[in-house]
């Protein structure tokens, strides 16, 4: 038996919340700017060594994303975040670049929780183009798409291009 879906979700939530606390700590120490982290974090205590480690991680990921996106200044670009959890990188990307579409992919229940948090933050919702105010489980707009998929299910992953408009040739 591969595992229990409920256990996988609990583990994913724990991992997402854990990573967010570290990131918040680095933001709070001034190592990194993230205008959206406070919408997702409640427990905020971490030590200085974690701040530096998380700064290095965030800075390197952002640099890689910037380097890629800036190679295509007048073209559409798509960024896929597999197992996104409560990560705010898609929000940072949308804040910086208008020609990018972000795909946040994770377990359905985790994305439902993330969507609830995001809907409570006007600053976040203002980033989305073509958002329809209809109460849906997930947020799907012109430039941001929550994709509820169990990454263990390869068949579901293969539906991304048709179901969500993912164009493989545009993806980082």
Automatic annotation (TrEMBL):
Q: Which SUPFAM superfamilies match?
A: S-adenosyl-L-methionine-dependent methyltransferases (SSF53335)
First-level EC class: transferase
GO terms in the biological process aspect are: methylation
Give the matching Pfam families.
LCM
Q: What is its EC number?
A: 2.1.1.233
The reaction(s) catalysed by this protein are: [phosphatase 2A protein]-C-terminal L-leucine + S-adenosyl-L-methionine = [phosphatase 2A protein]-C-terminal L-leucine methyl ester + S-adenosyl-L-homocysteine
* InterPro entries assigned: LCMT1, Ppm1/Ppm2/Tcmp, SAM-dependent_MTases_sf
Q: Which UniProt keywords apply?
A: Methyltransferase, S-adenosyl-L-methionine, Transferase
Named from the GO MF annotations, one term is: protein C-terminal leucine carboxyl O-methyltransferase activity
Family of the protein in this entry: Belongs to the methyltransferase superfamily. LCMT family.
What PANTHER family does the annotation carry? Answer: LEUCINE CARBOXYL METHYLTRANSFERASE, LEUCINE CARBOXYL METHYLTRANSFERASE 1
The name this protein goes by in its record: [phosphatase 2A protein]-leucine-carboxy methyltransferase
């Amino acid at each position: 038996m591969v595992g229990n879906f409920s256990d996988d979700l609990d583990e994913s939530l724990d991992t997402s919340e854990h990573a967010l606390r570290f990131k918040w700590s680095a933001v709070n120490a001034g190592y990194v700017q993230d205008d959206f982290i406070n919408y997702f974090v409640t427990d905020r205590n971490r030590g200085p060594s974690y701040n530096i480690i998380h700064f290095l991680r965030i800075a390197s990921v952002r640099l890689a994303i910037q380097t890629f996106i800036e190679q295509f200044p007048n073209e559409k670009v798509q960024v896929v975040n597999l197992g996104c959890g409560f990560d705010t990188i898609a929000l940072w990307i949308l804040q910086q670049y208008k020609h990018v579409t972000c795909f946040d992919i994770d377990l359905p229940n985790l994305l439902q929780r993330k969507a609830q948090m995001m809907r409570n933050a006007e600053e976040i919702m203002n980033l989305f183009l073509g958002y329809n105010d209809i109460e849906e489980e997930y947020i799907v707009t012109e430039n941001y798409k929550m994709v509820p998929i169990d990454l263990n299910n390869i068949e579901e992953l293969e539906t991304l291009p048709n179901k969500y408009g993912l164009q493989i040739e545009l993806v980082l």
